[in-house]
Amino acid sequence: MIVHKQLRLSLAYCLCQPLLDLHIGGSPRSTLRTRPATSILSRLKGKHFASGAKKGDKKGICKVCGSERTNRFASTLLALPDQGKVGRALTTDTFANGSTWQYDGLNIRFRDWPFIHRARLNCLPVNNVKSRWSNSCPKCRHCNSDETLPHVLCHCLRNMPSILRRHNTIVDRIVNAVQSGTITTDQQVRAANSRLRPDIIVEEYNKVLIIDVCCPFDNNAEALRDAEQRKLNKYEGVKQFFVGQGKQCEVFGFVIGALGSWHPTNENVLRQLGMSKRYRSLFRKLCCTDAIQGSTNIYREHLGMTEGSVDADNSE
After folding, report:
1. Which tens digit of pLDDT belongs to each residue from 128-165?
2. Three-state secondary structure along 230-270?
3. What separation in angstroms does the CA of 30 have from each of 21, 25, 77, 79, 289?
4. Helices within the chain (DSSP H only)
5. What is the CATH number of domain 82-306?
6. Cβ(264)–Cβ(150) under 8 Å?
7. Eight-state DSSP code of residue 198
8. What is the pLDDT of residues 93-109, one digit of tens each?
């Protein structure tokens, strides 16, 4: 019985591995090495029985096999230079906020499902991707830049109104979570003689919080860290102005990836706002799915899709 299950796992691996190894514009590995069921069992036997499971414990053995298979697939995906970059950004989130919607569908629409899974693997038919296996022009259909997915979701000038709406949705969610203090949104600090407009300023007594939201593309975890650092550097002058007035001032970059990655240092903002543990859990998930919804809208509008359209593969 166990051998038959292992054979099925090996078959599943053979079927799924080409999808994981496939780079857009390339081809799967010409040869796939599969391990016989007996070799898999021998490799897992020590792990399984070392954990205290008894011989003949089918449920325990299957659990170990499933975990081993999942880890192998995940390692293969994360090792891919292009299709694994979003996955590497998602792994920094210990709460898995960017993926829990797959189980409960929280704040996710039907149209978001086909978009987000292909977007995270860079399999959407934007011109730069299509040009890898065809003679199509890689240029953006609305400007002269290469039409990559990061360009569509974060940089194309034609999409800026939709990009701003995605940004403002997250700003509004943070504002609604503020429990006390005077809130200022998108306003210059005139006394500081600065033209900068922080997304959110919360003042309470002699304490000032400056929160600025951004949604960079999930190009590895470093992209999220760099985006946060740019926010800290940008508002350092405004921070020093409030410090000079004898106030305690903190600057926070609130970073949500365009494809739903949660930056770990966002936890500092949640603590400063005094959120309960239960609401924090919900808030994280809502912010990630807000970003996914906004990116879906941006992509569909970029391709000129109407409300009745279901799939983007046939859009030009």
Report:
1. 998 888 888 999 999 999 999 999 999 999 999 999 99
2. HHHHHCHHHHHHHHHCCCEEEEEEEEECCCCCECHHHHHHH
3. 10, 15, 18, 18, 38
4. 2-21, 37-50, 58-78, 85-90, 101-104, 112-120, 127-130, 149-150, 160-177, 220-234, 236-244, 267-272, 277-302
5. 3.40.91
6. no
7. -
8. 888 888 889 888 999 99
pLDDT tens-digit profile of 215-267? Answer: 999 999 999 999 999 999 999 999 999 999 999 999 999 999 999 999 999 99
Closest to 129 measured CA to CA, from 259, 256, 303: 303
**Cα distance between the two ends of the chain:** 50
* Rounded-to-integer distance, Cα 115 and Cα 312, Å: 9
Rounded to whole angstroms, how far apart are CA atoms 84 and 183?
A: 39
Domain boundaries, the chain: 82-306
Nearest to 272, CA basis, from 214, 211, 313: 211
| Gap between the Cα atoms of 21 and 102, Å rounded | 23
Angle made by CA atoms 98, 103, 115, in degrees to the nearest 5: 55
Task: Round to whole Å and give the CA distance between 107 and 74.
Answer: 26
Asked if residues 1 and 41 have their Cβ atoms less than 8 Å apart, the reply is no
Q: Which of 28-37, 222-231, 234-243, 269-278 has the lowest mean pLDDT?
A: 28-37
